[in-house]
Amino acid sequence: MTDLVAPRFAPSFSLRRLHERHGNKLLVAGAAAGYAWLSNAILAGQGVGAVRWHVDLSPLLEISPVLQAHIAGAVLSFAIGTSLLLGVKGRSVHRVLGYTWIVTMGVTAISSLFLSGLNGDTYSFIHLLSGWTIILLPMGLAAARRRNIAQHRRTMTGLFMGGMLIAGLFTFLPGRLMWSLFFTA
Ligand code: HEM
Fold this sequence. Notes:
This protein is mostly helical and 185 residues long. It has a domain at 65-184. It contains seven helices and two strands; from the N terminus they run H-E-H-H-H-H-H-H-E. It has helices spanning 15-45, 59-62, 65-85, 91-112, 126-145, 149-171, 177-182; strands at residues 52-53, 183-184. It has a two-stranded antiparallel ribbon with strand order 1-2. The radius of gyration is 21 Å and the shape is globular. The structure holds protoporphyrin IX containing FE (HEM).
C-alpha cells in the first residue's frame, strides 16, 4: 500500500534566508540609497543645484593630529576590512591582516572620543558606536581565540558594517570635511 503523504509547502520566500545569504549586500545597498537620498535632501535644502567632482586633499594638512589619526585609522580599516570580507586566502595572512585591522579600528574608535562638533562640545550619537566598537573588538578577538568562528565572524562583520556604513558614510554628507575633499558646489 502506498503511503499518502500530505505535500509540505515550504515558503519559497524566507526573510531569514534572505538575511543569511544577502544580508551584507542588502545593508550596503540600503545605506547607499539612504546616503543618496539624504545628500540630495541636504543639497536641495541649501538650494544647491549642481555638484562637481574634484579631489583636494589639502584640508587634511590643516586639521588636528587627532582627526588626522582618526581618518588614517578609518581609511586603513576600510581597506583591510574589505579585503578580509572578500576572503583573502591563507590563515597567516588573515591573522596578520586581522590583528592590523583591530589596531586600526581601535585607533579610529579611541581617537573619536577626542572629537566633537555635531553636538557642540559634547558627545553625539555616533560616540555610542565608538563605545560599542571599543567593547566588541576584544570580544571578537576572544571569540577567534576560543575557535568560535561563527561568533567571531558575526562580531567583526557587524563592527565593520556598522562603523563604515553608519559613521563612515555619515562623514561624506554635504557640508562635512570628507565631502569637501571630493565634491564642490
Ligand atoms: C571611513 C570611515 C570614517 C571616516 C572617513 C571618518 C571621518 C571622520 C571625520 C572627518 C570626522 C570629523 C567630523 C567631520 O567634519 O565630519 C569624524 C568624526 C567622528 N567619527 Fe569618524 N570616520 C570614520 C569612521 C568612524 C568610525 C568607525 C567611528 C566609530 C567607531 C567613528 C566615530 C566618529 C565620531 C564619534 C566622531 C565625532 C562626531 C561628532 O562630531 O560628534 N568614525 N569622523
